[in-house]
């Protein structure tokens, strides 16, 4: 599938991105807010230009980056690189939920989630437009390409949410404008 290249926006002057390849599988999700299934739409050039403007959204449009769908592969992009600071955590997740009590419980793994906080600058969640923070969350299976993978991207003003869906498409889920620091 082809994407139109919409330009390179670097929120981190010391960070570099590979040259554009224009290939990718980027989508956005329309939440129906009723009992019907949500609808995934192919992200066109206008949607990319309006929404994929943070560091991670721009990074996804470069080369084959939108093909990275495992926690391990995404963590390796940033781990032990001079421009990025990483903090890796393991978080217990809903061990109190009994899967057998839930009719839709087959998909849920209540063991642990992995969290990698990647940032530039001196601390995460800076308000500087020259810095960014990524919260990368995955399942306990580091290399699974069919398990949970989400990214919350902070650009100093706005959170943007991305997720690798179970059919290996990267979806943009939304924006929250926020002032974290009061």
Keywords:
disordered C terminus, 182 residues, 8 strands, globular, mainly beta
Outline the structure in words.
This protein is mainly beta. It has one domain. The protein is built from three helices and eight strands; from the N terminus they run E-E-H-H-H-E-E-E-E-E-E. The chain has an eight-stranded mixed sheet. Strand 6 and strand 7 (158-164) form a beta hairpin. The radius of gyration is 17 Å and the shape is globular. Residues 1-23 and 177-182 have low confidence and may be disordered.
Oligomer: single chain
Helicity level, as a percent range? Answer: 10-25%
Total beta strand runs: 8
Radius of gyration (CA) equals: 17 Å
Low-confidence stretches: 1-23, 177-182
Strand order of the largest sheet: 2-1-8-7-6-5-4-3
End-to-end distance:
42 Å
Mean pLDDT: 75
The string of secondary-structure elements, in order, is EEHHHEEEEEE
Structural class: mainly beta
Largest sheet, in brief, is: 8 strands, mixed
Share of β-strand residues: 25-35%
How many structurally independent domains?
1
Number of helices: 3
Which shape, going by the Cα principal axes?
Answer: globular
Short description:
The chain is mainly beta and 182 residues long. The protein contains 3 helices and 8 strands, in the order E-E-H-H-H-E-E-E-E-E-E. It has one domain.
Question: Strands, helices and their partners?
Answer:
Blueprint: E1 26-30, E2 39-42, H1 45-51, H2 55-60, H3 71-78, E3 85-92, E4 112-119, E5 133-139, E6 149-154, E7 158-164, E8 170-177
Parallel strand pairs: 1-8
Antiparallel strand pairs: 1-2, 3-4, 4-5, 5-6, 6-7, 7-8
